[in-house]
Design goal:
Elements (H helix, E strand, L loop, with lengths): L3 E5 L6 H14 L4 E4 L16 H11 L4 E7 L6 H14 L4 E5 L6 H4 L8 H21 L9 E4 L4 E5 L13 E4 L3 H10 L2 E4 L12 H20 L8 E5 L13 H13 L4 E5 L11 H16 L1
Parallel strand pairs: 1-2, 1-10, 2-3, 3-4, 4-7, 7-8, 8-9, 9-10
Antiparallel strand pairs: 5-6
Helix pairs in contact: 1-2, 2-3, 3-5, 5-6, 6-7, 8-9
Length: about 300
């Protein structure tokens, strides 16, 4: 499968002041998917404008026609599978089946404590993530028209559902696709079982998508681990998409400094078997600051040069 180019548009602009135009421009530039982060706030943006992910994607669905849309990523930190499933089915309907759910375990940042509880331990986050994903899969696949007459019921350690109906179900059948973020074996097993794609940022300690040999070696090791997990689970590795979320326009390695630098990097990523590369849309005065003109040239010329 050829490498696809996608983008992450952070929900930091009022819809009437650049928000709408950015999503429309992403479609004009030919991005395969435009994602947004699903956080209550995020890192250096905590005291800045930050809107909700699902309403933003709903608005984006109304002003675009072809481009896929999605979260990168949603987590259990402040969401419940039952309410999330209903919102996703609605969003999938409004977009006419263009939604991908990026889903992950969440972290220890602001989202982890915003609801007033202590941040979960790594073990509890992993356990919640597994249960959250399994239940969400059932709700989106089984709760719609033609599902059990009494809907989906479930009682787990962390989440429960009682006769939940999600009629009419997703436009995409049997449900909208999951892109499961994972760097370790346990998360990768979830991706192999429930995912249509796997998501990584490379080395999670550095959130670095740069071009150094070490970064590419880290990606290579992750891909090898994923292949082994898929084989253990009885899944053909090639049937699982591989999505790399790049660190950002301001990365020190200069990956997005020019079309040529991008082509070199994207070629190395494609050679590792990745099927989708996701770039952050530039945001002024942030870690994602970058040259918008160069970014747009990369979108329109970069993959064409890579394919040539």
């Amino acid at each position: 499968m050829p490498l696809r180019l996608s983008t992450v548009i952070l929900p930091v602009h009022r819809w009437s002041d650049g928000g709408r135009r950015t999503w429309q421009r992403a479609e004009e530039l030919g991005f395969h998917t435009a994602y947004t982060y699903d956080h209550l706030s995020w890192r250096t943006f905590r005291d800045r404008t930050w809107f909700g992910a699902l309403p933003t994607l709903t608005a984006a669905a109304a002003v675009t026609e072809r481009m896929r849309l999605g979260t990168l990523v949603t987590s259990p930190n402040f969401r419940h599978p039952v309410t999330l499933a209903k919102e996703l089915i609605t969003l999938d309907d409004i977009s006419d089946g263009r939604i991908t759910l990026g889903i992950g375990a969440g972290g220890t940042g602001y989202d982890a404590t915003a609801l007033g509880h202590e941040a979960w331990s790594p073990r509890e986050r992993a356990q919640r993530f597994a249960e959250f994903t399994r239940l969400l899969d059932r709700l989106l696949s089984e709760g719609g028209a033609g599902g059990p007459a009494r809907g989906v019921s479930y009682q787990g350690d962390y989440y429960s559902a009682h006769e939940v109906r999600t009629v009419p179900g997703c436009v995409q059948r049997p449900r909208l696709p999951f892109a499961v973020a994972a760097t370790g074996p346990r998360g990768m097993r979830l991706a192999a079982r429930h995912g249509q794609a796997w998501v990584t940022v490379g080395d999670p300690a550095g959130f670095d998508g740069g071009r150094t040999p070490d970064a590419l070696d880290a990606l290579r090791r992750q891909v090898e681990r994923l292949d082994a997990v898929c084989e253990e689970a009885g899944r053909e590795p090639a049937t699982l998409g591989r999505v790399l979320l790049h660190s950002g326009p301001g990365d020190e390695k200069g990956t997005l400094s020019s079309v040529g630098a991008f082509v070199d990097y994207a070629g190395a990523v494609a050679a590792l078997g990745f099927t989708e590369l996701v770039l952050h849309w530039p945001v002024e005065d942030s870690v994602f600051a970058g040259d918008v003109e160069v970014f747009e040239r990369i979108a329109t010329e970069g993959l064409a040069q890579l394919a040539a």
